[in-house]
Design brief:
Blueprint: H1 5-8, H2 11-21, E1 27-33, E2 48-54, E3 60-66, E4 76-80, E5 84-89, E6 93-98, E7 104-106, H3 112-125, H4 133-152, E8 156-157, H5 158-163
Antiparallel strand pairs: 1-2, 1-8, 2-3, 4-5, 5-6, 6-7
């Protein structure tokens, strides 16, 4: 019933990429697979994804995520532009390095999750609209676009993905609904196979 961890968890990193580029990508291509966790009862989601997104202005983002025990763990973002580099990682530590100058480390500000809650509650108390739905939908669709690219091994265009009627949901939404994905008799689930799976 999940959207794979690229949609459920890594979407926050993808959201940051869209924020940096100020919009959604026009296409994606990527690689991914189920390598380490291919065991009975685990499910069919991939344990790694690596997606290249192309944005309308010709810029790119490279988005990588994995759920593989014993591997290097990092949650960070690095933007390279014509004037230099900015990096921000978990804990909101920001490092800016303009060309020809020493890196400048900014002190972490208030916790970003708390700021979101403060903004929402202030809007509720003041009875004023507070709606980030469009941004959230666009970031979620960007993650889905990346999943389509890794599952199929194809270059997937935004417009194709948005028009797709693909669903992994059961025919009806209920606790006793039959899921589309079921384990084989050995308890192993079939997963997407790049180059074979169709996702549009």
């Amino acid at each position: 019933m999940s959207g794979d961890h690229i949609v459920e968890q890594h979407v926050h990193g993808i959201d940051a990429c869209n924020w940096i580029t100020r919009g959604a990508p026009v296409q994606a291509t990527g690689v991914g697979g189920l390598q380490v966790r291919a065991e009975p009862g685990i499910g069919e989601i991939f344990d790694h994804h690596c997606v290249q997104y192309t944005y309308p202005d010709g810029s790119y983002s490279f988005s990588e995520c994995r759920q593989q025990p014993g591997c290097w763990s990092n949650f960070g973002h690095h933007a390279h532009g014509t004037k230099g580099i900015v990096s921000f990682e978990g804990g909101d530590a920001v490092v800016i390095q303009l060309k020809g100058s020493q890196p400048k480390r900014l002190k972490p500000g208030r916790d970003s999750h708390q700021i979101e809650w403060d903004d929402l509650l202030a809007a509720v108390v003041a009875n004023r609209p507070y709606n980030e739905l469009d941004w959230a939908v666009e970031s979620t669709m960007t993650a889905i676009l990346g999943r389509m690219a890794t599952y199929t091994g194809k270059l997937v265009k935004w417009d194709e993905a948005v028009k797709s009627d693909l669903t992994y949901a059961p025919d009806r939404i209920a606790w006793d609904a039959t899921p589309r994905s079921k384990a084989n008799p050995d308890g192993v689930y079939n997963c997407a196979m790049p180059g074979i799976t169709k996702a549009l």
